[in-house]
Amino acid sequence: MTRTPTIADVARLAGVGKGTASRAISGNGAVSPETLARVREAVAALNFRPSNAARALSTKRTGMVGIYVHDFAGDFFGPILQAVDGELRGANRHMVAANGCGLGVGAGPDDGDARQRALDGIRFLIERECDGVLVVSNALSSEDLDMLWSEKAPLVVLNQTSPSKPEHCFSTDHELAGRLAAHALLQQGHRELACISGLHTAPDNALRMAGFHAELAQHGVIIPPSHQREGQFSFDGGHAAAQALLAQGLDFSALFCANDTMAMAAIACLGKAGVKVPDQLSVLGFDDSVLARYTTPALSTVRVPSVDMAANGCRFLLNLCYGLTLPVQREFPPEVVWRDSVRPGPHANESTPAVQVKMARKRSPTFKA
């Protein structure tokens, strides 16, 4: 029987000590480029495969990073998972993913207590000895995050901020993004508006809707309660909300939806009712999801760089867990992406004051990775 090569065999062939060979293979610790090249040549020549169990015992690291997302479905979380997996593979680490389905109180993503399912899912990853955990959940409060940060695994939060550990948070400015949405519709001459928000308990939704309404109010536009609906960030929710708005009559010229999923469902609902987008009604989404450009008409939206947030949050966590020095970016400005679902509104030719979004923002502090 052919003997399985060991780290000692690699070290002997490369002409280095076992400790040096181990550092070169694991990526933990300084090794010169020449030595690294020799060790890699020896690994390839021997077809050496390091034991994860042995590496975990020697380094007290498993090489696994966990990520919790609310749901694996949809076109928001998929690109985030792909970005994180790519970053981890590039650093020779691996991803363990969990979501809210079947955890905690509820049996499915829409049952039971979303907050408790998130806490259960994150603790599941911590108990599996993940070296660090990324969290994408709008069900957790700052107090919940503080509690999780007190536990043993390093934690990085995506798409949410917390005053207690801002350096561990990677998010866009959702309030500014909401203002940009309002600015876009006002700029196009729309003043009679309707909106479909996400979950009112979600921090990101609360910020973007607050920014949206605040910008409108600065220009004398108030959306009546009858023109506001909650769609819970889902296709079904967006479709039902659009139906409810249509039942009251089409006395608005533009509709803002707090994510693209709801906007796409609203466009489908409007089409079934014989309402042409954008000829009769303009629709603006939020996120710039991968499907937005393929709707009919293609969806105008506020782009949030969620993939960039995920990649940089993952790099920060890799640096934190393994002593790496990967570059980390912290600015993720939102922007309007114009496609075909918004056209000039009934006030486009009126001599109204120019709309100016307050773009001044505090410069992000510099954090050590």
TrEMBL record:
Keywords: DNA-binding, Transcription, Transcription regulation. GO terms for molecular function: DNA binding. SUPFAM superfamilies: lambda repressor-like DNA-binding domains, Periplasmic binding protein-like I. PROSITE patterns: HTH_LACI_1, HTH_LACI_2. Pfam families: LacI (PF00356), Peripla_BP_3 (PF13377). Residues 5-59 form the HTH lacI-type domain. SMART domains: HTH_LACI. The keyword Nucleus does not apply. PANTHER family: HTH-TYPE TRANSCRIPTIONAL REGULATOR GALS (PTHR30146:SF109), LACI-RELATED TRANSCRIPTIONAL REPRESSOR (PTHR30146). This is LacI family DNA-binding transcriptional regulator.
